[in-house]
Design goal:
Elements (H helix, E strand, L loop, with lengths): L1 E6 L2 E4 L4 E9 L4 E9 L6 E7 L4 E3 L7 E6 L4 E6 L8 E11 L3 E4 L3 E6 L1
Parallel strand pairs: 2-11
Antiparallel strand pairs: 1-3, 3-8, 4-5, 4-9, 5-6, 7-8, 9-10, 9-11
């Protein structure tokens, strides 16, 4: 079992920055990946960024060059550094953790609100 706790959301003006954190506790081992998703009001949840246990990263096109996902394996914490924020980045950001080997399991955090004002 894995528990995820997000923090770092808030209200920021357009052009500003925020750093989200996701602290994981429990069985963090094997082949796995962390991801950040977001959900804007009235829209479907979308994948924002992924980082694998091997350190590979990928991003949705809309955040490339502005957001950076990273992980501190010693602390079992994943971060999302968000720069040059725009109102379109507003939404609830969710931490997601998936184990791929030796078993396939998925976990979600409770979400943290990010609001970008114009």
């Amino acid at each position: 079992q894995v528990q995820l706790v997000e923090s770092g959301g808030g209200l920021v003006q357009a052009g500003g920055s925020l750093r989200l954190s996701c602290a994981a506790s429990g069985s963090i081992f094997g082949i796995n990946r962390f991801a950040w998703y977001r959900q804007a009001p009235g829209k479907q949840r979308e994948l924002v960024a992924i980082i694998t246990s091997g350190g590979n990263t990928s991003y949705v096109d809309s955040v490339k060059g502005r957001f950076t996902i990273s992980r501190d394996s010693a602390k079992n914490t994943v971060y999302l550094q968000m720069n040059s924020l725009s109102p379109g980045d507003t939404g609830v950001y969710y931490c997601h953790f998936r184990t791929l080997f030796p078993s396939d399991n998925t976990y979600w955090g409770q979400g943290t609100q990010v609001t970008v004002s114009s």
